[in-house]
Amino acid sequence: MTQQRIVSLIASSTEIVCALGLMDKLVGRSHECDFPESVKALPQCTGPKFKLDGTSYEIDQRVKALVQEALSVYRVDAQMLEELKPTHIITQSQCEVCAVSINEVEQAVCEITSTRPVIVSLEPNALCDVWSDIRKIGTALGVSARAEELISSLQREMDKISQTSANLGSRPRVAYVEWIDPLMAGGNWMPELVKMAGGRSLFGQDGKHSPWLKWDELLAADPEVIVIAPCGFDIARTRKETDLLLGRDGWHELSAVRNDRVFVADGNQYFNRPGPRLLESLQILAELVHPDSFSFGHEGSGWVKVSA
What we know:
Blueprint lengths: L5 E3 L2 H9 L6 E4 L16 E3 L7 H13 L5 E3 L1 H7 L3 E5 L9 H9 L7 E5 L4 H14 L3 H23 L6 E7 L4 E2 L4 H7 L3 E2 L13 H7 L3 E4 L6 H5 L3 H4 L8 H4 L3 E4 L12 H12 L13 E3 L3
Parallel strand pairs: 1-2, 1-5, 5-6, 7-9, 7-10, 10-11
Antiparallel strand pairs: 3-4, 7-8, 11-12
Helix pairs in contact: 5-6, 6-12
């Protein structure tokens, strides 16, 4: 049997592969794969076509400029793939802004002459798709039983939170902010997680891409809890931009602001990675939505409170 050589080009799939006990089979990763810590030693097979520094507005403009020209925002290193000789490459077709696209990977694979790796393409739009993708990876890598065990374990822990929150009675209005400038709300699996945490998601629909959000819409909805977790940003980077919201007209009249329930969470490590750590993402949301009923120890590392 051929020894498996896995290249994962999505941070979430790298976490899935490791959770399935196949860390030793990974030979390459994307530039965004950084968990668990040990994967950082692997060769990087991708890179961005734009500068990652600057404000959320500047990053948004760079990404839109590339997309407008029908270009992928990331590049795949075909030469590195040739050197690594993977038997399996895991990529995605859900979002060309989130990670390397399937088209980019297929183009790179065409340049490889010595191997014909199996391409596993994921498309997680809703929470059920995350389970399907874990199952798909498990099947492709010959560990279907482990995949089912992982799914069952995650679902069991998440159901505990959902069942507890369902009995609490109140469902605070929650605004989950996925991008600051321009303003974007969380979609895909986020409305579902908010509901499981015992909140009522004000924006975004289950299984649908994250929607742009107008400032007047936020003011009119008057959220009781605001969670700011931009895709790809850690807590420190997000806190540098929260002044963009704090200084806008009407901010201080919002219920969440008046009641000191505005939070910055780590959107890079949690929430935006459709893999095993969606469990921790749900735990964080539960702590923020119902602090008197849930405490998982994520304060300081997974989220911090924003002072008005």
